[in-house]
Amino acid sequence: MKRLIVLIGLFFTSILSAEELIPQKGIEILVVNGVEVVEDREPVDLQSGLNQVVVRYSNSVGKGGGKKVFESKPFILSFEAPEKQATLIAPKIYSYEHANNTFKQSPMWVIKSDEKEVTYSQEILKSRGGFLPYRDIEELVAKHNQENGVILGSTSTLIASAQIVESNKKSVDNRVSNLEQLQAWYTKSSKEERKAFQKWIIDHN
């Protein structure tokens, strides 16, 4: 149990030390490091090291009475967390047709931190097809990562640590499951809930 608390402490220390990614107008952040986001137009916390965010452009485009809502397919962006707060900026869009052409393959997103652009890679998230092709998006991202051998930083590091600390497989599985649940809860919780939980961690360390 004490070992589990130590691992949880290390996990949340890495989370708390990371910076925020702030989406600009027209951007929805759908998934962060494998966990679906509740408030998709709000800033999200990044973890130290490699980050994977799934984003979508969704905005009213055009002029006057010709305005229409355009919604792109989800794109997977992968990048190393910057040392300071970052902003995610969408390409400039002038019309519905322009949006349609821009988001067909590799739109020019900009991730900016401390007046510098952050290097990233991107790809379109493969849909499941049919009605509501991106339903259960968290599951789609997990499938994508499994097929492409993508291992996300904090959770994978903790899994390795847990395996070294405890050789009992059943015990390890339980611990990893608890940590993954905590990660999901923390990402989806409000700022007030996070502050309360941070205080709880400090009080129990």
User: Approximately what portion of the residues adopt beta-strand conformation?
Assistant: 15-25%
Broad structural category = alpha+beta
Could you name the ranges where pLDDT drops below 50 across 5 or more consecutive residues?
13-17, 154-175
Task: Please give the share of residues in helix.
Answer: 40-55%
What does this structure look like?
- InterPro entries: UPF0319 (IPR018635).
- It comes from Aliivibrio sifiae.
- This is UPF0319 protein BTO23_06740.
- Belongs to the UPF0319 family.
- Pfam families: DUF2057.
- By secondary structure, this protein is of the alpha+beta class.
- The protein has one domain.
- Helix content is 40%, strand content 24%.
- Strands 2, 3, 5, 6, 7 and 11 form a 6-stranded antiparallel β-sheet that branches.
- A hairpin with a 2-residue loop joins strand 9 and strand 10.
- Helix 4 packs antiparallel against helix 5.
- The longest helix has 20 residues.
- The radius of gyration is 19 Å and the shape is globular.
- The protein starts with a helix and ends with a helix.
- About 13% of the residues have low confidence.
